[in-house]
Amino acid sequence: MVISRQQAWNKLLEWTSNPSLFIHARSVEIVMRRAAHLYGGNEQEEERWGLAGLIHDADYELWPEEHPKHIVAWLEEQKEPEIAYAVAAHNTKWGVPHITQLDKALLACDELTGFVIACSKVRPDGIQSLDPSSVLKRLKTKSFAAKVDRDEIHAGSRELGVDLSDHIAFVIDILKDSANDLEI
């Protein structure tokens, strides 16, 4: 690892002011850290996977039409080619193939994490009683969390080779553990 979590956090703070984007960045970081253990094969991957989750949308607020061009360039300047590649690949519109488990996991966790949080926001007890069937039902309602790219959610689980319902359960369980910290 070349960059530290603090350097990644500072870059996020420099380019982002929207509190919702901070919560998204933190929640994807948390999910990716745990995903490293399940999908990455070893705990040495946790820090790198977490950094990819934390920083992946850092340029979205300032340059939404160019996202993730600027954060990818910054990561390459910082000598983080694996994270840069995963961040480039997480935006399927770029057409970058998903080669490594990191690439696939970031795709599988990013949009789904945001969608699970959106689902929890409309429940009286937040995420505590949310289950995969509720999330799957909401996925079919195009007007609910309309900005979430459902194609990326489906592509992510397909690329990672996991059942979507099982992956949703994985994300819900991780977010439940951090619900207070994330205010969900």
Give an account of the 3D structure:
This protein is mainly alpha-helical and 184 residues long. It is built from ten helices and no strands. The chain has helices spanning 5-15, 19-40, 46-55, 69-77, 81-90, 101-121, 132-139, 150-160, 164-177, 179-182. The radius of gyration is 15 Å and the shape is globular. The protein starts with a helix and ends with a helix. The mean pLDDT is 94.
Number of strands: 0
Instruction: Profile the largest sheet.
Output: none
Determine the mean pLDDT.
94
How many separate domains? 1
State the distance separating the first and last CA atoms.
Answer: 31 Å
| Count of separate DSSP helical elements | 10
Low-confidence stretches: none
Order of helices and strands: HHHHHHHHHH
Domain HD: 22-110
Organism: Atlanticothrix silvestris CENA357
Protein name: HD domain-containing protein
Pfam families: HD
Which features would summarize this protein structure in a list?
single chain; 184 residues; mainly alpha; HD_domain
What is this structure's SSE topology?
Layout: H1 5-15, H2 19-40, H3 46-55, H4 69-77, H5 81-90, H6 101-121, H7 132-139, H8 150-160, H9 164-177, H10 179-182
Please sum up the structure shown.
By secondary structure, the protein is mainly alpha-helical.
